[in-house]
Amino acid sequence: MRIDETRTKILTRHELLASGIRESQLKRSLRDGRLRRLHTGAFVTRQDWESARAEERHLLAVLAADRARKGGDVVFSHASAAVAWGLPLFRMPPSPVHTSGPRTDGVVRPKAGLAHHAVAVDDEDRVVIAGLPCTSLERTVYDMIRTQSKEAAVALADAAMRLVAAGSRRGRYDDDAADAWRASLLGRIARSVGARGIRQARWLARFADGRAELPGESVSRLYLVELGFAAPRLQVPFDGPNGEQWLIDFGLDDVGAWGEFDGVGKYTDPDLLDGRTPDQAIMREKHREDWIRGRSQRRFVRWGMQHVATAEALGSRLSSFGILPTR
């Protein structure tokens, strides 16, 4: 999700009136839903809003609030900094724009509300991302993993660690970078004894793994451990028949099985299809799975988002294949 690209979707009152739209037409468009108000004097079309995922919708609200910013020393924080960093808001309800800092006069309060956290933000915790003043990646993760559900927090923490250790390079993971970032986050947590949610934050900082590539994979990993399986290996390399190397989402070594989380995008996203049709992608996955199962003599089970609605739902999916935890 690119901030500059999202910014172009915001329409201001001044721009709309300058284009020849009358005030009465603007009001009518708001009433009939063709335009949606993001902030005072800032709007988005219905098409752009309805096609946006939760993260982009929140980013639109942040960017609209930023247009009205009057200076000051506040920064966007929590979920609002998370979307600027490109982190997921998995299973998080819609929230107002979040800011942090000692004063509240840096951003005009939108009618929908502005959640301001009256806390100090050190200079090293302040960054600017495509013009947006935000909390640093570490501070953002620290704030979020203390205050969100465990499912939302693990998806965000894994994504942040992936950003640190892998960037956009699929299959390449820098363990040293991940370990250093984890140590720094744990150090911050250790200095915050007694803070809200600090016990959960400590556990999640140790559990986070950037090899999980999707929120569904992160929550699957969380639920596998809660169900009593050993922590799985992630993105396990496996040699294909023509010298290629495949990555398997989960190595369930304690029960002699492989697991894959199938996001819908695997069969619908043009970037992931890489020129193939959905039918071709499905056949390719079938041949891949047959090869892995035959060569490894291990069971192979797939699950999707519907199977990680709860830990019990994932456990039921696995048990239907005879895959049960060993403890």
Inertia-based shape: globular
Name the beta content range.
Answer: 15-25%
Main sheet overview: 4 strands, mixed
- Identify the quaternary structure here: single chain
Helix/strand layout:
Blueprint: H1 3-7, E1 11-12, H2 13-18, H3 23-32, E2 35-39, E3 42-45, H4 46-50, H5 54-67, E4 75-76, H6 78-85, E5 97-100, E6 114-117, E7 126-129, E8 132-135, H7 137-147, H8 150-165, H9 175-190, H10 198-207, H11 215-227, E9 233-239, E10 245-252, E11 257-261, H12 265-268, H13 270-273, H14 278-296, E12 299-303, H15 311-319
Parallel strand pairs: 5-6, 11-12
Antiparallel strand pairs: 1-3, 2-3, 4-5, 7-8, 9-10, 10-11
In words, what does this structure look like?
The protein has about 325 residues and is of the alpha+beta class. Helix 5 packs across helix 6 and helix 8 crosses helix 10 (about 200-205). A hairpin with a 5-residue loop joins strand 9 (about 235-240) and strand 10. Helix content is about 45%, strand content about 15%. The strands form four sheets. The protein has a four-stranded mixed β-sheet with strand order 9-10-11-12, with helices on both faces. The chain has a three-stranded antiparallel β-sheet with strand order 1-3-2. Strands 4-5-6 form a three-stranded mixed β-sheet.
